[in-house]
Design goal:
Number of helices: 20
Distance between the termini: 46 Å
Radius of gyration: 27 Å
Largest sheet: 5 strands, mixed, barrel
Number of strands: 18
Strand order of the largest sheet: 1-2-3-5-4
Strand content: 15-25%
Shape: globular
């Protein structure tokens, strides 16, 4: 690797490493690793002492910048500083401005509020506003006045239930405000928000919630569009989540079409047209990490190409990532940034060698598929460690789904962008007359893509659930993959298989052990019993939220379907389908009677729950060779074994 590339890799590693450090021991470990990397760089590249000293100074500055900026702290005047130290809610009267649209979801709206006045005092900062009940969406730019309770966000009760504290801190918000009524004082003009809202509303109104939402997401990104959660889930299971997130693929379609249409123009006009297309994409999709990365790399490639030089994609990628993290260190902790960077690195480093390997080893009729196969394979394997680390899951048919969806995604994206421009530029009356006719063939194409994704998501084991994977195992797994993905590591590939088998064996040992996991949040309790890779659950409540949390816990811990679920609460007809999809057997309270009578047991091999006495205040739970007696009221142990949280 060339000295410039290896130096950029060291800088990127320093920035990302510093963003995750939380103790002096972590800092010491990072310093040791960077010193070793710096020494290896100087020795391998034969750089003079002056160059090594300059790189060492840059590593120090980058580490300090990313380490101190990755988790911002409240500034003077922030609303969170008014909350009492004991954490009790603070009654407040607030005047502020809505920062982002808040859609109505289950009768409530949620958005970030820039606070201007708090209890008559000037305040500077943001809080997360929840309006419940809510009948009309909160609109960006609305100045509102309200009375409510402000409190600090709570941490999650389980690693799989992400807490609001860290999520909001990354958005420079350290408080939450809840109210049941607001008074709108005035509405500012917000051109970008109005344009995004107009595109999404028009496409959804004409093409429907799913097809129209998909078309809007191809233009604006899924973060700007109220897509149904079921649609997001099936795209994730099929390995096509990137299609719903504004990224380099969407920009490449737009920029490629723009440059093709302006091929005969002078160089200055081509550059202006390409820059305008990228600026429009950034404005509509918003400054998300994946969008900023795509725009910066696209701008660099466009400038290099129009100047007559040859670009070096890996160098452009490293420079882009380092600049992004120096300007916005919190992005180092963003899953979107990490996945975007890993996927792009895979395309830059491994897609070409994989295409050559396919041409050399597969039958000649498949050679035409080499480019189409190499891109999703490279992106999949480079992002696989991150998927296991953050989600404990990976799509099993991602390569097939990307291969089948590729002929549809390109035309759909280009057509959706053309329709969006028509919505923005044409008068409303003319647009209303033309849009239903022009969108019909695009709507059929989007229906075909959605049907394809639904079909793939229903294949056996469409989503491989591994459960939480320890970061050290992910690191070893990444090393085992990199030995095959990096083109200059052929001599060490014999070590790859032992490393991968070691990770699989250790993770299987964790998943197949007997365990009892208790989670309590929002006045609800869930108890997951595990034995030899299977699981069952007890839930204190049977409402929709409880079922969603139970599903998240089950899938997050690596269990696609449970043996049985006992719900100590009535389950409504609307929630019946959710619970039935989670487990093979469902027992719920009916008419005030327990799911089980005295002396009865609900059991599968090695997992059981029973009621030992007639009054039903206690439950006997068994998992493997171990047993515990629980109080029915809170699923806490009466004595003996204490469940693990």
């Amino acid at each position: 690797m060339k000295p410039v590339f290896s130096a950029g890799l060291l800088l990127l590693s320093a920035c990302i490493g510093a963003a995750y450090l939380r103790s002096s021991m972590h800092w010491l470990l990072l310093v040791v690793l960077l010193v070793c990397g710096l020494a290896a760089w100087g020795r391998a590249c034969r750089r003079p002492r002056k160059a090594i000293a300059v790189l060492a100074l840059m590593l120090c500055l980058v580490s300090v910048r990313c380490g101190t900026g990755a988790m911002p702290q409240p500034q003077p005047g922030d609303p969170s500083l008014f909350i009492p130290p004991d954490g009790k809610p603070l009654a407040v009267r607030v005047v502020g401005r809505i920062q982002a649209d808040g859609a109505v979801n289950n009768g409530r709206c949620r958005s970030l509020l820039a606070v201007s006045s708090l209890n008559g005092q000037r305040s500077r900062g943001r809080t997360e506003l929840t309006l419940d009940p809510c009948t009309t969406p909160l609109l960006t730019g609305a100045w509102i006045e309200l009375q409510g309770e402000m409190r600090r966000p709570q941490a999650g009760s389980h690693p799989l239930l992400a807490g609001a504290d860290e999520r909001l801190a990354l958005q420079r918000t350290w408080s939450r405000l809840r109210t049941d009524a607001i008074q709108v004082l005035r509405q500012d003009r917000t051109l970008l928000a109005d344009a995004r809202r107009k595109i999404a509303q028009r496409l959804i109104a004409v093409a429907g919630e799913q097809q129209g939402g998909l078309l809007a997401a191809l233009v604006l990104g899924g973060a700007q569009v109220p897509l149904p959660q079921s649609l997001r889930d099936v795209f994730r299971m099929a390995g096509l989540s990137h299609a719903l997130a504004a990224s380099g693929f969407h920009l490449s379609v737009l920029l490629g079409s723009t440059m093709a249409c302006t091929r005969a123009w002078p160089g200055g006009l081509r550059l202006a047209a390409g820059s305008g297309a990228m600026a429009l994409f950034l404005a509509l999709a918003g400054a998300q990490p994946s969008v900023v990365r795509a725009v910066l790399m696209g701008a660099a490639a466009l400038l290099i190409r129009e100047s007559g030089h040859r670009s070096r994609p890996l160098g452009v990628l490293l420079l882009t990532l380092v600049v992004m993290l120096l300007l916005h260190p919190t992005w180092a902790r963003s899953i979107g940034f990490q996945l975007s960077a890993a996927a792009t690195a895979g395309l830059v480093i491994s897609a070409g060698p994989m295409e050559q390997w396919i041409v050399q080893h597969l039958p000649r009729p498949l050679h035409r598929l080499a480019p189409a196969l190499s891109i999703p394979i490279a992106a999949l394997f480079w992002t696989l460690p991150l998927q296991l680390l953050h989600f404990g899951a990976a799509p099993l048919y991602a390569v097939i789904s990307n291969l089948l969806a590729a002929p549809l995604l390109g035309p759909l994206t280009l057509a959706a962008m053309a329709l969006a421009l028509m919505v923005l530029l044409l008068p409303s009356a003319l647009c209303s007359a033309l849009l239903p006719w022009l969108i019909w063939p695009v709507q059929q194409l989007s229906w075909l893509l959605i049907s394809l994704v639904h079909w793939i998501s229903q294949w056996p084991w469409a989503q491989l659930l591994t459960g939480p994977v320890h970061p050290l195992l992910v690191l070893v797994f990444s090393l085992g993959l990199l030995l095959w993905l990096l083109p200059y590591s052929q001599g060490l590939r014999c070590l790859s298989l032992p490393l991968l088998l070691l990770v699989v064996g250790l993770q299987a040992r964790v998943q197949f052990r007997d365990d009892l996991i208790r989670v309590a949040q929002w006045g609800r309790q869930w108890l997951l019993l595990r034995h030899r890779g299977r699981a069952a659950m007890l839930s204190s409540h049977g409402d929709e939220l409880s079922c969603r949390i139970a599903t998240r816990l089950s899938h997050g811990l690596g269990h696609q379907r449970l043996d049985w679920v006992a719900v100590l609460d009535p389950v409504g007809a609307d929630q019946q389908a959710c619970w039935n999809a989670l487990a093979r057997t469902l027992q719920a309270e009916q008419r005030g009677r327990l799911p089980l009578s005295a002396g009865q047991r609900l059991q599968s091999d090695g997992l059981s729950v029973g009621v030992p006495k007639r009054h039903g205040r206690l439950l006997d739970v068994r998992f493997g060779s171990r047993a515990v007696r629980l109080r029915r009221s809170d699923l806490q142990p009466q004595s003996g074994l204490v469940p693990r949280v």
